[in-house]
Amino acid sequence: MPITANNTNRKSWLEVSVDSDFPIQNIPFGVFLTKENVVTVGTRIGDFAIDLGALQQLNYFEGIELTDDMFLQDTLNDFISDGKKTWRLVRNRIADIFDEKNPELRENKKDKDIVIFKMKDVEMQLPVLIGDYTDFYSSKEHATNVGKMFRDSDNALLPNWLHIPIGYHGRSSTIIPSGIPVNRPMGQTLPNGETTPVFGPSRMVDFELEIAFITTDANVMGENIPINEAEDYIFGMVLMNDWSTRDIQKWEYVPLGPFLAKNFATSISPWIITMDALEPFRAKGPKQDPSPLPYLQQKGKHNFDVNLEVAIQTENKNTTIVSKSNFKYMYWSMSQQLTHHTSNGCRVNSGDMMGSGTISGSSPDSYGSMLELTLGGKNPIKLNDGTERKFINDGDTIIMKGFCKNNGVRIGFGAVSSKLLPPFVRK
Fold first, then answer.
1. N or C: which end of the chain has fewer CB within 10 A?
2. Has this prediction a pTM greater than 0.90?
3. Which residues contact 296 (CB under 8 A, 6 or more apart)?
4. How far is the C-alpha of 165 from the C-alpha of 163, rounded, in Å?
5. Cα–Cα distance between 362 and 145 in angstroms, integer?
């Protein structure tokens, strides 16, 4: 079935600015709350949020097999469970409805008033109920940089890293949408030169620039997913800030890896950008040497050319871009991650989320964490307002953005933006 929604010549009768992340060729999926406190599944074109529940009730999806309440829910899980054919049919239909040549909704003021909202009048929610969350460690540059700091230059990459996509199971209960603030976590750390740990606020709160993918129901327990089918089970992608505390991490991560240093908060952008929308932006990944075992081998373009940036905004609203990177740098692709994840028969469900791991390029300005950008705090970053940062200060807001662009079409992710607050105080 062709992806007609991607037609680069298509224009919408809704006003869309030239530099918008959300032209009619994007059509992401999310969940929002209206002024009337109604939660609905929706999409976005330009600065307009579109109520898909209302569109369905008004029969604009006639001819597409959907359950009566498909879009009248507070998560996308059921829609994602319906699979790739339904995703494509719905997305193509939305593109047709809002095409400038189609008067059906455009000339129906009554329906338009029910269906279309201004973005400033809605509140974005977490788009899916995330049952399980796995975070990978798939940027060779990031893994090498961290290995040098936490171990030594000769032992930067552990022997298994070039053979398997390394990952760990995160905590889904603290995944939050953009705009929700994060409290500086308390934890146990070992001060330099000491032999006894202390408990208190982390002094080394960090961001991690990541992209996460959302899956559909992929398998039954015991079944593995072949590498050539893996992408069929990926619905789409979001930006992700995997908040981290480097001092807690350093003390706790041996021998079982990240725990409290990572699970206190993970922020994601609210709109899921579908794999169909990203299809024109495929890119080849780095050469894998040694060649992976046969179950992980793939040919062709399985990475995606997504331009990424991270900014720190201080409390006085001064903003400094501190990193510019790209998703195409990832050593292990999403399909390799999903294939490896299920290679032992692990079950993957609709709404599960898989993080890429920190995305770092080869140049210092493309590193995806303060740990790398400041060499563990040794080389502070100077912000535009003259202040310096070794790590993140209370009151700082971390803003991550991402977009793809070619042939005059820009497909963006919007932003994930989260403010760091002082430690939570129980009243």
1. C
2. yes
3. 164, 165, 227, 336, 339, 340
4. 7
5. 10
> Helices in 207-274 by DSSP H: which ranges?
246-252
pLDDT at position 407 is: 83
Neighbours of 17 (CB within 10 A): 10
**Beta strands, E only, 52-189:** 116-118, 123-124, 133-136, 167-169, 175-177, 182-183, 186-189
Work out whether the CA dihedral 53, 120, 126, 412 comes out positive or negative. positive
- Per-residue CA distances from 138 to 144, 196, 284, 291 (Å): 11, 33, 15, 15
Give residues with Cβ within 8 angstroms of 278, minimum separation 6: 236, 237, 304, 306, 404, 411
What confidence tens digit (pLDDT) does each residue in 41-92 have? 999 999 999 999 999 999 999 999 999 999 999 999 999 999 999 999 999 9
Q: Give the tokens for residue 372.
A: 């790398």
H or E element, residue 385: none
Give the separation between CA 427 and CA 193, rounded to whole angstroms: 35
Active-site residue, from 142, 302, 340, 341: 142
**Phi (first) and psi of residue 87, to 5 degrees:** -55, -45
Give the model confidence (pLDDT) of 103-141 as tens digits. 999 999 999 999 999 999 999 999 999 999 999 999 999
Q: What is the pLDDT of residue 35?
A: 85
Share of the chain above pLDDT 70, in %: 100
φ/ψ of 357, rounded to 5, equals 90, 160
Secondary structure letter of residue 363 according to DSSP? S
DSSP 185: P
Q: Locate tokens 């022997």: which residue?
A: 159
Q: Residue 404 is encoded by which pair of tokens?
A: 């793809």
Cα dist from 9 to 21, 50, 405, whole Å: 16, 22, 15
More confident of the two residues 254 and 346:
346
* Catalytic status, residue 341: no
Query: How distant, in Å, are the alpha carbons of 50, 174, 306 from that of 279?
Result: 23, 31, 12
Q: 5-9, long-range: CB within 8 Å, 24+ apart, which pairs?
A: 5/91, 5/92, 5/94, 5/95, 5/276, 5/277, 6/276, 6/277, 6/279, 6/280, 7/95, 8/407, 8/408, 8/409
Question: Which residues lie across from 237 on neighbouring strands?
Answer: 213, 273
Rounded Cα–Cα distance for residues 156 and 143 (Å): 7
